[in-house]
Write a structure and sequence with these properties.
CATH topology of the largest domain: Aspartate Aminotransferase, domain 2
Radius of gyration: 22 Å
Helix content: 25-40%
Number of strands: 15
CATH superfamily of the largest domain: Type I PLP-dependent aspartate aminotransferase-like (Major domain)
Order of helices and strands: HHEEEHHHEHEHEHEHEEEHHEEHEEEH
Shape: globular
Number of helices: 13
Strand content: 15-25%
CATH architecture of the largest domain: 3-Layer(aba) Sandwich
Largest sheet: 7 strands, mixed
Distance between the termini: 51 Å
Length: 454
């Protein structure tokens, strides 16, 4: 019997009682500004202090109620305070909250649940390595690919985001993050992602994947390409920070063929696109592609930091302490993760995300049709992007996107941006968001676009 979706949000949202930020939020923000690093970014966009989260809603310390289309950057896929997740964490709290590598019921249960939902080609044919964050998972995946091949260079993509801590910052394409990095050894070569709206050279739409993959193969085949021997390909099945860019359907299958042809691992980063975000547990399932190594994090822990990689069993010839760390595999996160995976497997939530995702995209396209500052609406499931451009052109307009975000915040909806030029509005609400809050949020989005357009 299918589990029921947990509807828990505050249905009077949005409800704005004060200016944003209100008096109490302003006081807490002032203390934070005094005591915490100035390198924060999200408090630049969202000037408020949160008291509690309930389902797909947030209540600030001044009593304002917001619809959450932000989800802690696509982390709270089952919403804030989901009873299924909270109960799993509470039960684990009474047992043990930290242990390194030694098995617990929580650890074994997580491993079993994860194996059950891995892409078909990985099920019962994989091993799991625990990490701490999404970036840590990607770094472990790269280390494993280099270990397996004895080569160093990793092919990554323009618009990619794989973390900014340690060496993995070099895989993330935004060079801004590398300006502050303490590690300069890169060995990453970035090629264009098949971003159809902004592809960098002239090519017929139906040939974009062929063009990108042909370029990659030429790099690996030509000893005079200037690129050292390639150890693997690291790719997001749908780009996250790069702009919620959905590749053509033939792209991942072609990458899979190339990786097989050159006997290198295909690493698929499901940190943001996984755990049901696109209407499948893994976004790569839309393309029937099996990774050699898969990176898992963000919403798998229900707000508790855990991550891992799953990789082919025949890659498991690595030495002890290959990628070690004290906090890898926290029991609370593992308990939460097992409950989340079981729920995704045993409920009808993924069917709903696919259906409502198509509804959301249609509604956003309707907003686009009445606007001259929306260049494209794209996405799968609840991973939807709306690209904002200068009036009547394709020129990116990050300032307009920022204005839309600010207008939505003042009206009680949290929605964030992404993209090469910070000009893409991205939908990251919990998968459990109620229909009424979807429609209310769409109204606020539409009005904010009109207001910004002027």
């Amino acid at each position: 019997m299918k589990q029921e979706v947990q509807w828990t949000s505050l249905m009077d949202a949005p409800l704005i009682r004060t200016e944003i930020p209100g008096k109490k939020s302003t006081e807490l923000l002032a203390i934070q500004d005094k005591l915490e690093t100035s390198s924060r970014s999200y408090t630049t966009f969202f000037r408020l202090a949160i008291d509690r989260g309930i389902g797909s809603t947030l209540v600030d310390v001044d009593g304002n109620v917001f619809i959450d289309w932000f989800g802690g950057v696509a982390v709270m896929n089952l919403g804030h305070g989901n009873p299924i997740v909270i109960n799993a964490i509470k039960e684990q709290l009474d047992k043990i909250t930290h242990l390194t590598e030694i098995p617990t019921e929580a650890r074994i249960n997580y491993l079993k649940r994860l194996n059950e939902v891995l892409p078909a080609g990985m099920r019962d044919r994989s091993r799991v390595m625990f990490t701490v964050t999404g970036g840590d998972a990607c770094e472990a995946a790269v280390s494993l690919a280099r270990h397996m091949t004895g080569k160093r260079t990793i092919i990554a993509f323009a618009g990619s985001y794989h973390g900014i801590a340690g060496g993995i910052v070099n895989a993330t394409s935004n060079t801004h993050y590398r300006e502050y990095a303490g590690f300069y050894n890169s060995n990453f070569f970035h090629v264009p992602y098949p971003y159809q709206y902004r592809f960098p050279w002239p090519v017929d739409k139906e040939d974009i994947s062929k063009s990108v993959v042909g370029y990659i193969e030429n790099i690996m085949r030509d000893h005079y390409s200037g690129v050292p021997p390639v150890a693997g390909i690291l790719v997001e099945p749908i780009q996250g920070e790069g702009g919620y860019v959905v590749p053509p359907d033939d792209f991942l299958p072609m990458l899979r063929e190339t990786a097989d042809k050159f006997s290198i691992p295909l690493i698929i980063d499901e940190v943001q696109s996984g755990i049901g975000r696109t209407g499948r547990i893994w976004a790569s399932e839309h393309y029937n592609v099996t990774p050699d190594i898969m990176c898992i994090s963000k919403s798998i822990g229900g707000g508790i930091p855990i991550s891992s990689i799953a990789y082919r069993s025949d890659y498991d010839n690595i030495p002890p302490a290959f990628h070690l760390g004290t906090y890898r595999g926290n029991p609370l996160g593992l308990a939460a993760g097992a409950s989340i995976l079981e729920y995704l497997k045993d409920s009808n939530i993924l069917d709903r995300v696919r259906t409502k995702g198509e509804y959301l995209k249609r509604r956003m396209i309707e907003v686009q049709e009445g606007s001259r500052i929306i260049g494209e609406v794209r996405g799968k499931g609840y991973m939807i992007g709306m690209e904002i451009v200068k009036r009547g052109s394709k020129e990116p307009d990050g300032k307009a996107a920022s204005a839309i975000r600010e207008s939505m915040l003042k009206s009680g909806v949290l929605m964030h941006t992404c993209g090469h030029y910070s000009n893409v509005m991205r939908f990251m609400a919990p998968l459990t968001i109620e229909d009424q809050l979807l429609d209310k949020g769409l109204e606020v989005l539409s009005e904010s676009v009109k207001k910004t357009e002027g």
